[in-house]
Amino acid sequence: MRLEELKETLAEASQVFVLTDENVAQYWLPEVEHWLGCEQAEEIVVGAGESHKTLQTAQEVWETLLENNADRNAILVNLGGGTITDLGGFVASCYQRGIRFVNVPTTLLAMVDAAIGGKNGVNLGGCKNQIGTFTEPLEVMINPICLSSLPERELLSGLAEMVKYGFIADDALLKVNETNYEQYILRAGDLKRDIVDDDPTDMDQRKVLNFGHTLGHAIESFTMTTESPLTHGESVALGMWCALWLSIQQCGLHEEVLIDYEPKLRSLLAEAEVELHPEDIDAILSYLDHDKKNKDGHASFVLLKAVEKPIIDEEVPDELVRESLLELIKLVDEL
Ligand SMILES: NC(=O)c1ccc[n+]([C@@H]2O[C@H](COP(=O)([O-])OP(=O)(O)OC[C@H]3O[C@@H](n4cnc5c(N)ncnc54)[C@H](O)[C@@H]3O)[C@@H](O)[C@H]2O)c1
């Protein structure tokens, strides 16, 4: 859908609501409303960050929709990073059994990943994405100008998801960095679109997108309980290191791939304070029990036979998973 067409659709809706967070609201709310021609929209501003991706926030947004008499012909515009597109997609997909929503991603991570593909949801009990639906947005409108206000650390977080596409689908993306990322945004989004189109409900090949996420999510959930929470991308960058290490042990991946990744990992973690210790491993592993990537009680991984040759549903013995974390923690201490 082109911008003009989207503007017409928004103009024809019974009401337009714009959901955003307190940071994005400061920078982009009036500009984006103007861009979409919906200056009269009702604004719903929630707290920023992963800790607000909860059922409680969803309920607050539902109540605001109800108080404003939103009906099934209303449209919700989700303006923000992956936290907002995940939350807003979930809210819209459940409100009155589903209203239309548009994603306007404002982080690199959301532009290349979270806003695309219809997976949405909220966290529950400290575990990521436990409640959600598969519902496609009406449209994803990307305007890279929004990245001009993005903090460096959040940019690096998005680069990590782009590197993921490099490992699973197109090695050109392994070259992505802070100076050249703009030229890869469309390519990364197209890769995600293609993978999702083949498997919209994540039953088969879409699982390749979880490369680095099995342990990445566990690390992210664990650090959310500490003084030094890591971003989603930083956690995935660490999870990818473990996945590469496990791929060498279990799938014959060349060791050079891991060695080549280490400088990249260092740069992706440049703004992070990684506080992981061997005594944290049990706590990190406890989050794997709740991971949807689990199969028959075993953590199930996406591993690589080679770059661009992912294998899904790889069962890895618990001891090897533990060892990968121990090796990661040793490496991070040296970084
Ligand atoms: N649904 C999916 O397919 C999918 C895929 C990947 C990640 N995710 C989810 O995405 C979330 C992470 O998304 P994220 O990294 O975008 O985090 P985020 O949405 O929490 O944004 C990170 C921070 O940047 C701020 N911010 C956003 N845009 C800004 C801008 N333009 N200028 C200044 N500040 C800005 C936000 O307020 C927040 O503080 C996680 O919850 C993850 O689980 C979902």
User: Please, how many helices?
Assistant: 12
Low-confidence stretches: none
Any idea what the shape is?
globular
Task: List the helices and strands in order.
Answer: HEHEHEHEHEEEHHHHHHEEH
Output the radius of gyration. 20 Å
Give a verbal description of the structure.
With 335 residues, the protein is of the alpha/beta class. The protein has two domains: 3-149, Rossmann fold (3-Layer(aba) Sandwich); 152-334, Dehydroquinate synthase-like, alpha domain. The chain has twelve helices and nine strands. Helix 2 links the parallel strand 1 and strand 2. Helix 5 (108-114) runs parallel beside helix 6 (152-168), helix 8 (213-223) crosses helix 9 (232-251) and helix 8 crosses helix 11. Bound molecules: nicotinamide-adenine-dinucleotide (NAD). Nicotinamide-adenine-dinucleotide binds at residues 21, 23-24, 27, 48-50, 53, 80-84, 86, 106-107, 109-110, 113-114, 117, 119-120, 128-129, 146, 149-150, 154, 157, 231-232.
